[in-house]
């Protein structure tokens, strides 16, 4: 199969390559997440949603929704409406099947959309979520600004993203896993040569921790929190618009 990995560090063409990559791996995406994370990704998503519990949001936007795992998880907050957007139509198709099976089509809708040009007017949502998606934005700053635009004043953005473990020996173990184990397992399951070589490269290039909080600040957010998860393999970030 054609290698789809986006050129990390290069902006031009990344969006199209990310779209093609996720369309290609869509049928096995959920299985890959469970296998490669040993199921921990589900716990991380629950923690992301829990960060919104006190907000009691009625309208939630899930950016880079993929197969709608996080959008469906957010229903525990009892919102009136959850809208998921993603650039990969094949991922959305699988998400729509999940929503239909659960009979949640009235509360959860998915549509194709670009995080850097969201198809919504200003101040539409009480909260926004992004899980493992911001590192794939072609223009991170523009994507964060767009999400802030569609949030109401003091609306909350919660971001779940991979990060760089900093403590020994977790850092060394994670580096070995991400460089040698993850691409091989991902390739074997997904049959895509590039997708799981791209993953560790995109994580390595992503400005995590305090650097990401600074990018959020520059995009107009305030009142930040940052919570490393599972020895720093992932992180939760929250900010207000």
Instruction: Give the CATH architecture.
Output: 3-Layer(aba) Sandwich
Return the string of H and E elements. Answer: HHHEHEHEEHEHHHEE
What percent of residues are in strands? 15-25%
Query: What number of domains?
Result: 1
Give start-end ranges of low-pLDDT stretches.
1-11
Question: Looking at the chains present, what oligomeric state does this protein adopt?
Answer: single chain
Distance between the termini: 42 Å
> Can you count the beta strands?
7
Q: What coarse outline follows from CA principal-axis ratios? A: globular
CATH homologous superfamily descriptor = Vaccinia Virus protein VP39
Main β-sheet, in a few words? 7 strands, mixed
The helix count comes to 9
Q: Which class best fits the helix and strand makeup?
A: alpha/beta
Output the CATH class name: Alpha Beta
Helical fraction equals 40-55%
Mean pLDDT over all positions: 89
CA gyration radius, whole angstroms: 17 Å
Give a quick summary of the entry.
By secondary structure, the protein is an alpha/beta fold. Helix content is 43%, strand content 21%.
Describe this structure in words.
- This protein is an alpha/beta fold and 241 residues long.
- The chain has one domain: 3-Layer(aba) Sandwich (Rossmann fold), CATH 3.40.50.
- The chain contains 9 helices and 7 strands.
- The N terminus is likely disordered.
- The relative contact order is 0.16.
- Helix 2 runs antiparallel to helix 7 and helix 7 runs antiparallel to helix 8.
- A 7-stranded mixed sheet has the order 3-2-1-4-5-7-6, with helices on both faces.
